[in-house]
Amino acid sequence: MPLLSVRHLSTGFPIGNRWVPAVQDVSFDIARGETLALVGESGSGKSLTAYSLLRLVPPPGRILEGEIHIEGRNLMDLPEAEMERVRGAKISLIFQEPMSALNPVLTIGSQLVEAMTVHGLGGADPKAAAIDLLATVRMDDPARRFGEYPHQLSGGLRQRALIALALCCRPSLIVADEPTTALDVTIQAEILNLLRQLKHDFGLSLLLITHDLGVVAHTADRVAVMYAGRIVEEAPVRALFKMPAHPYTQALLRAMPGSTHSARRLEPIEGQVPSLQRMPPGCAFGPRCAWHHDACDVEPLPMYPVSDTHGSRCVLVKEAHRLASGSAAKLPAE
Ligand SMILES: Nc1ncnc2c1ncn2[C@@H]1O[C@H](COP(=O)(O)OP(=O)(O)OP(=O)(O)O)[C@@H](O)[C@H]1O
């Protein structure tokens, strides 16, 4: 059984007199010890998917439908008090900007001790347990950092403190929303290595939200590509980089520095993610897609299999299957 299983999740906002989904029919699994990266341009619905998992959708939004199972329990059925316990004990969140998640007037140590005490952890000596945690996230001089305030730490150290806070209650799943975007490149690599190490040491699962495919290549096992609120392609990381099957994924890769799919000159994706008010019918990428044709405007587009572990919501894949019985199966990436 997967650790996390999300089925047909839709989350939306009231626009005029109707509810408009900003996350639509999203389904995915995360196995124990696995990292799933959720990628896509700004506004594609990555963060909203993450907040939906925790049932923390910003008002006036709400989850419109779907199921979210963790260790077999459907979070949608839990009363709010129990959901609070799940947020502490099963799923932890790491944000892009640790300053907004850390309390500026409390030392790092007292925030860790408080978090452990709330969850009944830390044993007889919570201070020692907190210093241990700071060592676990490779803080230099953990005993000194215990007594420091967030503003006394560099960006990278603050992110380590936040990761320590996320680990406090020994979660099974960490949701990391752009955890390295605000950091410079060398510190980014250190934090990604730390996350990989912690995942290995603690058997953690990770949902990594990022718009940076370089981070995905370095950190993830599988990738789900989101566009305009839907997952349009899902694949193991190698397969996605080797044979992207959705034109949107191909366009993301062409825009990625250092990708084998990018030409010598990077190609930014023309146009913009459509707004909720102006969502095109069928495949929302249609208006930006060089391969767009009438069949793309049929609603809803299912996930077509590229292989047992790779799917794409693109009619080209269906077409490729049809042609594969001859010898002319060609995806646009080939
Ligand atoms: N409070 C809100 N009210 C109305 N619409 C919202 C609200 N929050 C998010 N949205 C809409 O939901 C959609 C998805 O937003 P979301 O923040 O999940 O995207 P994202 O992929 O995480 O982007 P980014 O990388 O910029 O954070 C967007 O169209 C956004 O306009």
In short:
It is a peripheral membrane protein. The chain has 334 residues and is of the alpha/beta class.
What does this protein look like?
This protein has 12 helices and 12 strands. The protein has 334 residues and is α/β, with parallel strands linked by helices. The chain has a domain at 221-334: Rossmann fold (3-Layer(aba) Sandwich), CATH 3.40.50.300. The protein has an 8-stranded mixed β-sheet with strand order 6-7-8-3-9-10-12-11, sandwiched between helices. Helix 5 (126-136) packs across helix 7. The protein is globular and about 65 Å long. Bound molecules: adenosine-5'-triphosphate. Residues 13, 22, 40, 42-48, 58, 61, 211, 276 line the site of adenosine-5'-triphosphate.
